[in-house]
Prior knowledge:
By secondary structure, this protein is of the alpha/beta class. The chain has helices spanning 15-24, 38-43, 82-90, 178-189, 198-213, 226-239, 257-268, 279-286, 292-314, 326-329, 339-342, 369-378, 383-386, 406-425, 478-491; strands at residues 4-9, 28-33, 48-51, 77-80, 94-96, 102-110, 124-131, 134-137, 143-148, 151-158, 163-166, 218-221, 243-249, 272-277, 319-321, 359-361, 434-448, 451-464, 472-473, 495-500.
Amino acid sequence: MKEQIIILDFGSQYTQVIARRIRECQVYSTILPYDTPAAEIAKCRPSGIILSGGPCSVFDKKAPMPDPGIFKLKIPILGICYGLQVLAHSLKGKVERGLKREYGKGTLRLLDKSCPLFKKLPGRLQVWNSHSDKLTRLPKGFKAVATTENSDFAAVEDRRAQRYGLQFHPEVVHTPKGTQIIQNFVHGICGCGKNWTMSSYLDQAVAEIREQVGQDKVILGLSGGVDSSVAAALIHRAIGNQLTCIFVNNGLLRYREEHAVRELFADHFKMRLRYENATPLFLKKLKGVTHPERKRKIIGKAFIDVFRKATQKVGDARFLAQGTLYPDVIESVPIAGNPAALIKSHHNVGGLPKNMKFELLEPLKCLFKDEVRLLGLELGLPKAMVYRHPFPGPGLGVRILGEVTRERLRILKEADAIVLEEMKASGWYYKVWQAFAVLLPVKSVGVMGDERTYEYTIAVRVVESKDGMTADWVKMPYEVLEKMSNRIINEVNGANRVCLDISSKPPATIEWE
Ligand code: XMP
C-alpha cells in the first residue's frame, strides 16, 4: 500500500494547499472529509494524519468534529489552526472564544528547540495566523513549544503520543519556513520516505491503466490543452494503439493549432488520431449569432454532436478517457460560512456528453495541475505544451465579440499569434496566467501610408492569477506592448488599432464574453 498522509478536511480554503505542500515533499497525500470513520482511515494505513483548519469554532452547535477513534490509532497527528483546537477540545484541553481575531503576520518564538517539528529552524520565525478562538489550557501530556505575540500556545506537542498542533498556517507562503515544518512532520515525525515522484507514478499509472483496460479500446477527446494531452500521452504509453484520440477542429482554435496538435500526437507520438474538421459546421451554426451565452451553447452542443458521431466511427470502444484532476474529485465539505465551499470548479472541460455509454478512464484524477505538468514532461511532451496558458473550451468564439465570421477569425488568429510570440520572445509568457488578443467589433479610422483605413480594434489582455478565480492585469513593459502593437497593425490586414485591457477580475472577467 502507498505510503501516505491523510488530511481530514474541516473546510479550510487551504486544505488543498496542505496536500500540495506534502506532495512537494515527495510524500503522497489524500484529502478526506473530516468525519471519515477511523476504521476507514486505518484501512489506508496512513503514516500521519493532519487536521486542517476551518471556518468554524469548536463552540458552534454544528462544529465539525472527527471520529474520536482517530486518537486511538497510534498514528502521528498534526492539527493546524482549527485542527489544533479540535485536537485540544477532543483531548479535554480548553479552547476559549477569542474576543479579537488574530489575522496576518506574527513572530513565532521557539521555547523548546528540541521539538522535532522545528528541526533545522531558527528560534524566531515569521508565521501567518488567521483565527479568533484560542487555546487557554493544554490537554494532559501536552506542552507549549512556541509562542507568538497573541498566543502562549502557538505550537504545542505531546511528543510521546506523537501529537502536535500549530495555531498558525505552515502551508501558506506567508509562513516562509512553513515547508520545513511540514517536511519535519512528514519525514521526521511520520517517517515517510521521498517516494512520490512523477517517474514512480508513471510506472504505477501505466500498470493500473493496463489492468483496468485489458484488451479493450479507449477513446479520448483531445483538445490540445494540458490535461487531455497528458492523459493521451500517458494512456498511449500504457496501451498504444488501443487508444484512439478524437480531435475536433471547431474552427475556433488558435493560429495553426490544428497542425501543431496533429504533428505532435499523430506524427511524433504516432498515436491513432481521428481528426474531425468541423469548421464549416460551427461557422454555419454561429452565423448571425451575437449573444455570448447563445454562442457558448451553440459551440458546446455542436461539439457534443461532432464528438458523438466521431466515437461511433471509431466503434466498439469500452472506455472514454478524461483528464479529470484531483481538485475535481475531492469531496467538498459543506460547512456553513466556508468560502471554499463557494469556489466551485468553474468550467466543465469541453463539456463531454454524460449519456454516452462508456466506462470512464481518468488516470489523472489523483494529481494536482502542477503534478500533471511534471508528468507531461516525464512523458516527453514539450515544455511549450505542458506550460501553455489555459484556453477556453469555446475558443476564439468568445474572443470575437459579436458575430464570428471567417474574416474576423483570421484577423484574431494572426493578432493573437503575434501577442503570444512577443510574450515568449520577451520572456513574459511563462510568468503570467494568460495572454491573448480579443477582437472588438468596432471599426475606427486610421492611416496607412497615404491611405485611410477603416478597420477592427484588437484588445490585448495579459493577466496574472493563481486559479483563474481572481486576476490582476499585468503591468507589462511598454517596449513589449509597443512591439506587439506595431506588429499587429503592420502585419495583420484588417486591424488598425490596438488597446490594452487594464481591468482586474473581479469586477471584470478574464475573457471578454
Ligand atoms: P473568466 O472569463 O470567467 O475565466 O474570468 C476564468 C478562466 O476560465 C477560462 N474559461 C474557460 N475555460 N471553458 C473553459 O474550459 C470555458 O467556457 C471558459 N470560459 C473561460 C478562462 O480562459 C480563464 O482562464
